[in-house]
## 1
Amino acid sequence: MQYVLYYFIAVSVIGAIVCIYDKLAAARGWRRVPERTLFFWALIGGGPGVYATMLIIRHKTLHHIFMLGIPAIMILQGAIIVGIYNILYMKGLL
């Protein structure tokens, strides 16, 4: 079970790094990270890292799709995790 936590921490850190890179790219005129890439990292479990970084460095905070979409992804993932945990617990696998 602790490996699941390590996974979410790792993808959150990577998602945060991608978000920071995109902010730097925007400021310096470099090639930008596609928005779908930021959503990809959120979808595979990096939502907390992406969202926290967005708020801290003020990146994509004016884009409603990000300010609503990333938290929605995290809520959905949380519900799925709780559901899976309950199923496994009821079957005696945890």
Note: The longest helix spans residues 2-28.
## 2
Amino acid sequence: MNLYTYVHNNPLIYADPTGHWCTSADGKYSHAGGCYGTGNTEVFHDVGGSKYVDDVTYAKNKLVDLLFEESSNSKMVYSAIMNDPISAVVNNASTINAVGGAVNIPPALLGAIIFREQATRKMDDDVLNYDTKIRGVEHSVGLGAIFPSTARNAWVNMGWEDELPDGTYNLAKKLTNDNTFNIVTIGLVLYDKADTHSIDITSDSSWSQVIPYYNSSMSNPEAIQLGNNYAMRVMQYMPYISILLGA
């Protein structure tokens, strides 16, 4: 068998130069076919008992592994899995890719944020929106878990305030029910954070400096730790999210 060659500018995936095989860098998972796509989805074993899986299955397994690595509290992990963050990405893959291309943000970043926010979701959005309607208290809702005030600021700063519904509750409902709007808003929030904190985003790699601000004010040591941990997790997800998006 030919030696595996590093490809795809991805430190987590290796492939045979003939395109016939793909294996993870840790050697635990391999499958026939290229490193991306689902052309060969048969799971089988060789004579040595090694398990070969398709790349999408591999990516899903690794994302679940990362959730278990993040917490020793099994109840929290199983709660995250039951939230089905993988489906939140897969079911919106075409929109994530389209929005990423339109606003020039890596789609894997948008997808990784969605995966993170859905995995850590504690309550149904409809319950949160009801609280907003009754008490006027805003909550982070939708695929990207965005506060209505954060969304409004991002759209207003882009000069697109006319696209927004009036009132906190109506905006919260749109963030919840309109996935395309929510995904676009994730992108606008990232741009707004980059602009607010004067972060140069001329390259894909520079987005790593913006990610902490998506979930944190970064205004004190505790907030900095929170934001940096959030960014670390999101960046860990990105190679596997990229596979789910068919990149």
Note: The two ends are 26 Å apart (CA to CA).
## 3
Amino acid sequence: MRPVSAGEVGELRKDVERLKSAIGAMSRALAEANRARGIADGEVAEHRRRLGEALELRADLERQLDRLERDLGRERTATAIRARLLADILQSKWWRRRPAIERAARVELLLGGCQNSQ
């Protein structure tokens, strides 16, 4: 083995110190990255929870919209029937009005019964 000079020892010590500094800096960077990852994981979990709530709300609103559209369709149909019955009453001759009114009353009872069962 050859003897190591003082200059080489000094250079090796500087290299070791630079490596220790680099290791320390990398350790700090890794710790910071881990903290940031922990925060990001928490935020992702919160966003997933909110997304789940939003999807549930959307499904509920779509069910309500479907129900309201069905109700609106029934109301429009009943209104169209009533309009037709009124038109029949108004267009009928005076001696045919009583049967038209009676028919309208029977249909109105049926419409009222259908709406009460909904």
Note: The chain has two helices and no strands.
